[in-house]
Amino acid sequence: MPELPEVETTRRGLAPRMTGRRIAAVIVREPRLRQRVPRRLAEQATGATIRSVDRRAKYLLIATDRGTLIVHLGMSGRLWIVDRHTPPAAHDHFDLVLDDGTVIRLRDPRRFGLVLWQTGDALAHPLLARIGPEPLSLAFGGSALHAATRHRSAAIKLVLMDGHVVAGVGNIYANEALFRAGIRPTTPARRISRARCDRLAEKVREVLAEAIAAGGSSLRDYVGSDGEAGFFQDRFMVYGRAGEPCLRCATTIRELRQGQRATFWCPRCQR
DNA sequence: CTTTTGACCTGACAGC
DNA sequence: TGCTGTCAGGTCAAAA
């Protein structure tokens, strides 16, 4: 379900409701996520006071005075606020109950998500330590992208989706950024000039920022932490539009497979 | 080191 | 209606 804009939308919805609150209870109904939910999570986290709710790539970092709860939504996860009397439904694997009665609930049918606990520096966790620069930070730009791609013969779209090159660019926004940059997704990464790296990095930032401003994209059942749907899906130029006319030049949008993921592109606008 | 492939898991949907 | 096959927003480990 969620790419970076959806995770950021979730973070923004949760942060004001969670910051400063104490964790009153931790309920694990199904520990078998991508990694097993730590057995001692409840005893470690209960009673901790939440300092902040942050994001690194697509990981949510709920920092407390005792350690950090690391949550990833995988493909189908969603983290939202429910009334404390809402009975858990199917796939509601995890609840965080706060001292004011707020319940933060994780629903994840496919169980590709994660709930982990890390004491000390959360960013030192093995899953986070080697992630590339945040796309919306100053550390990412044409210069960084150019440097990271010089020895990569793989297709630019695959490299863009490699979290060690740049954090959090998933399938939808990789497709959309490449369209905006006018770059063919199959181009070997090392063949992209510095000028085009500048342009591509700029378009990655632009499309992510626009999607965050729109509250993310609501596909299938995704909604934000407050239950509101995002609406960026209405602005897709290529994603999911195979066979339809390009919104810029009317050429038929094409589809191919790269790394077992669907790629959509306009053969005229992207070269 | 990089690249490629398969694995994890459930639900929705198309086609028969 | 039910079966089968395919696909889905992510990421990692293993093999080449």
Assign the structural class, choosing from mainly alpha, mainly beta, alpha/beta, alpha+beta, or little secondary structure: alpha+beta
Distance between the termini: 29 Å
Helix content: 25-40%
Widest sheet: strand order?
A: 1-6-7-5
Order of helices and strands: HEHEEEEEEEHHHHHEE
Low-confidence stretches: none
Question: What fraction of residues sit in β-strands?
Answer: 15-25%
Tally of contiguous helical segments:
7
Number of strands: 10
Computed over alpha carbons, the radius of gyration is: 19 Å
**What composes the largest sheet?**
4 strands, antiparallel
Taking all residues together, what is the mean pLDDT?
Answer: 95
In words, what does this structure look like?
This protein is α+β, with helices and mostly antiparallel strands. Helices cover 25% and strands 21% of the residues. It has helices spanning 4-18, 41-45, 126-129, 142-149, 156-160, 171-181, 194-213, and strands at 23-28, 50-56, 59-64, 68-72, 78-82, 92-98, 103-107, 114-118, 254-258, 261-265. The strands form three sheets. It has a four-stranded antiparallel sheet. It has a four-stranded antiparallel sheet with strand order 2-3-4-8. The longest helix is centred in the C-terminal third of the chain and has 20 residues, at 194-213. It starts with a helix and ends in a 6-residue tail after the last strand. The model has no long low-confidence stretch (mean pLDDT 95). The chain binds a DNA duplex (16 and 16 nucleotides) through helix 6.
